[in-house]
Specification:
Distance between the termini: 39 Å
Domain DUF4440: 28-133
CATH topology: Nuclear Transport Factor 2, Chain: A
Largest sheet: 6 strands, mixed
Structural class: alpha+beta
CATH class: Alpha Beta
Protein name: Nuclear transport factor 2 family protein
Strand order of the largest sheet: 2-1-6-5-4-3
Signal peptide: 1-20
Keywords: Signal
Organism: Negadavirga shengliensis
């Protein structure tokens, strides 16, 4: 009987951990989707508290920190018009989450309209009950690329 109760307890524990992870996974997916929209809208007011003060952004043309990324977005130096998300994978590591998006990005870069396929790696960390973006990296890929789940 004791073994049976321990087994039932472990089953409930694994189910609750699974639901908690899927809840975090969904929360991060929704946050990432909102982030793409805020970038398209050039809404630095919503992006500023999301981006950690030490965050880094890796683009095809360079790497920079939070202040420069916000400036790039606000001035339209890069206008992220639309990120069409094709695939998403999420891994949870305690209070840190990594999200991979495979996207087609429609953007205006220094006045030129462009379309590129990317895998975008986003690293989030829970800090004081809210998620902060620590890193965002664009990796150029072909449209046949698939994210490993």
């Amino acid at each position: 009987m004791k073994t049976y109760l321990i087994g039932i307890g472990l089953l409930f524990l694994s189910i609750s951990v699974s639901f908690a992870q899927s809840g975090v996974e969904q929360e991060i997916k929704e946050l990432s989707k909102a982030k793409w929209q805020w970038m398209a809208d050039k809404d630095v007011g919503k992006l500023e508290p999301l981006f950690d003060d030490k965050s880094k952004f890796v683009h095809m043309s360079g790497t920079w920190k939070k202040d420069r990324e916000l400036e790039v977005i606000e001035t339209g130096s890069i206008w992220y018009k639309n990120a069409e998300v094709h695939d998403v994978a999420v891994e949870i590591f305690g209070e840190t989450v990594i999200l991979w998006n495979r996207i087609t990005l429609q953007a205006v870069v220094r006045g030129d309209e462009v379309s590129n396929e990317f895998t975008v790696t986003e690293v989030y960390q829970k800090q004081d009950n809210s998620w902060r973006l620590l890193a965002l990296t664009f990796s150029s890929v072909r449209d046949v690329h698939q994210i490993v789940h």
